[in-house]
Here is the input.
Amino acid sequence: MITPPTQTLLWLQAASCGGCTMSALGAEPEGLAEALRRAGIELLWHPSLSEETGAEALAILEDCRAGRRRLDILCIEGAILQGPSGSGRFQILSGTGQPMARWVEALAERAGTVVAVGSCSAYGAMPSANPLLEAVGLQFTGDDKGGLLPEGFRSRNGLPVINIAGCAPHPGWLLESLMALTSGLIEASGLDSLGRPRFWANHLAHHGCARNEYYEFKASAAEHSQLGCLMENLGCKATQAPGDCNIRVWNGSSGGCTNAGYACIGCTMPGFESPGSAFLETPKIAGIPVGLPVDMPKAWFVALSALSKSATPDRVRRNSREDRVVVPPRRRSPT
Amino acid sequence: MTRMIVGPFNRVEGDLEVALEVVDGYVAAARVTAPLFRGFEQILVDRPPLDALVVAPRICGICSVAQSAATAAALGVALGLSVPDNGRRVAEMLLSVENAADHLTHFALFFMPDFARAEYQGKSWHSSCVARFAAMKGTSAKKATAARARLLHVIGLLAGKWPHSLALQPGGVAKSVDMGERMRLLSILADFRAYLEDEMFAAPLEEVAALDGPASLDRFVEGHEDGDFAFFLRIARDLGLEKLGAGPGRFLAHGGPLGQGGIWRDGNLLPLDLSGLREDLTSSWMRGGNLHPSKGVTMADADKDGAYSWSKAPRLDGMSMEVGALARQRIIGHPLITGLLEQGGGAGSVRDRVVARLLELALLVPVLEALVRGLTPDGAFCSSGPVPERSFGCGLVEAARGSLGHWLTIERGVIASYQIVAPTSWNFSPRDAAGNPGPLEQALAGTPVAAGEAVPLAVQHVVRSFDPCMSCTVH
Here is the structure.
C-alpha cells in the first residue's frame, strides 16, 4: 500500500457525548490507530487518546491556532454551544477560560480541511433541541446553511466542512473519508447538498434491511420485538434516511438498527432530534403514513400498498406480528 | 501557596478542569470543575414518554447502554410493565458487556498511558510500560482495543450498534435471539475470555475471582508477571498507589447483575434507601432548591456567585458517597476488595479502584456466559402496554463507573419532569452548602506535587482512578 505524505489531525470535542470517538474506536479489523497510520495521519492530539494533558495539550492547541504548527485536518465532535446569549460560556475549553466556540472558529481558519464528526457537529442535532443552549453545527444549523461558520466558508484546501453525520456514525464513514481525504480523492462534488460524503450518503438506511419482505407486502409490526416492517406503525424512517447502515457490518453483525428490531430514527438527517411527533410512532393522515419513502409519489404508494396488502402471503402476515418465525417458508411441492 | 489549574484534563470522558492549591509539595485543596452544560433534562420535558428511549442514551457515548437501561427501567415502572426472563437476560447482557468494555477502555487507553510518560524513565518497569501502554502505540493497548471491539459484537448482535440504540424497551428488548445467535454470543464471549486469560491476567478467570485478600494478591503477582494485571500491580507497589487517593470511605451501589446494592457507611452495610438523596446546588451554576431528584429542577445560571461547576452535588443524608466498581465490590462484599480496603483504612486508593475494575472483568464473563445459557427457546423477550396519562418511575442501574439513576414523572401523557443523577455527579461533585468537598476533591487533598511539575502525575493518577464520565455528569 502506498502511504501518502503525513497529514496532521487535531480532534476536539465540543458539546458531545463522546460517542463518535467511542464508535471510531470500534473500527475493525485494523483498529483506529492503525487505520490512521495507513491513512498517513499523525494525530496531534485527541482528548480521549493522547498522552498530553493540561499545559502540554494546550501548547499543541495554541501552536495550531497561531499557525506555528501545520494543521491539515481538524475533526470536531459535538455541537457548538453559543449560549447563554451568544457568549459561548456553556462550554469553556478547560484550562483556557475561553469558549470552545472561539477555539473552533480560530482553528477552522488554520485547517486544511474541517471534518464534522457526527450529526451534532454537522447540524446541531440533539443539543439544538434545547433552545437555551443556542447549539449549532459547524456549517449548518439544522437544515439551514450557515452554522458557527458561514455558508461560504471554505477551508485552506477549498472544501466546505465535510459532514460525517450519524448518531453515532459508523466508524467506516469516518475512516474511509479520512483515507480518501489524505489520498486527495475528496472533492466538493463528492459531497451531497448537506455536506455528507456521497459514497455512503447515496444509499438509504432501508437498502439491505432484512425486513424487506415485510416491507414489500406491507406486513407491519404493531410493537417492538415483532418481525414485521417498522414503517407503518413504529416510526421507521429508513426509507428516507441517507446511509448504507444496512449494507455494512456494524459491530460485527450485518446492518444496524432495523435488523436489531427497532425503528430507524433518521440520525443522519438534520433535525432528527425533533421529529415533530413521537419517535416511535408513525404519524398518519387518514391511515397513510405522513413520511413516505423519498422519491415515491403518494398515489402510487397508496395504490401499491393496497395491492401488496391484498397479496400478502399468510406466512408473512403471521410472522410479522411474532418475535420469531412461526410459519416457515413452504417448499413448493414437486409437480 | 501555589495555585494551579489543570485543563484540558484528557483521557477522561468529557470536559474536566481541576484547580489545585499546593502547599509545601502537597495539594491542600482541590476544586473540580465541569466546564460544559448540555441541558438534556430540559430536552426531555414535554416530549412523549417513549421519546426518552431516543434522547437519554445520547447523554453519553461511553455509558450509552447504561443510560438506555435506566430509561427503560424508569419507563417500565411508569408503565407498570414486567420484563420477561429472556428480555431481562438480554438487557443484563447488554449492560454487562458495556461495563466490561468500559473497564477495559479505561485501563488500557485512559489510565495506564500515564506510567509510560518520560517522567518515569529510570523505573525498572518504564521501558516495558512504554512498549505496552504508550498512548496510541502500546502493544497491550492495541490488543485491548481489538478485544473490546470484538466484545462489542455482543451489542452489535443484540442491539444493532454501539453506542446509541433502541434495543432496550420498557418491557424488555426489541429483538429475540435465535439458536444460531446464542451460539455466536458464546463464541464472542469465548474470545473475550481467551483475551483476558492470555493477556490481562495470564491466569484462568476463576483464579482471579477467587483472590481473597492482600496476601493472595501478592502471591498472584509473583506467579503471573506476563499479564497486564500483575504488571500494573508491580507498578502500583513501586509507586505506593495503595496510599494515594483515599476517598470519603462511604460507598453507594444500586445493584445489578454482579450483586446486591446498598450503602456502606461507618463500617456498616445498610439497605439501599435513597429517600435522603438531595442534589445540592450551592457550588453549581444552577438555581433552585436542594431537592430529591423526584422533585428536582434544572435551571442554568452562568452568573451565579460562588459557583464553579455545571455538576450538581448529590448527597445522601447530607454526605458525599463514592460510587464505582470499588463501591460495588465493597457492598457485595468480595473478599479481595474487602481485604484491600481494610488493609488501607477503608477509604480506598488509586490501586483499589483499578483492582476492583479488573476484578469485575473476571467476574463479568462468567455472569455473561450464564445469562446466554439461561435463555429459553420459547420464552418471550418483550412485553408492552399503554402509556398512562399520569405516572411516575425511577430507574436505578450500575454503569461501569457507578450508580446511575433516572427519575421521571408523566403528566397529561407527556414527560413533566426528568432528572438524572450520574455516577460522576457523585464522584466529581463540587462543594455543598456545608462546605464539604465531593469525593474527588477530598481524594486529591494530600496528593504530592513535585517541584516543577506542570501537571502533577500523582494528581493525574488520582483523577483517572475514578474513571470519570463528565459527559454524563453535565447531562
Summary: Chain A has a mean pLDDT of 95. Chain A has ten helices and 15 strands. Chain A touches chain B through 81 residues (CB under 8 Å).
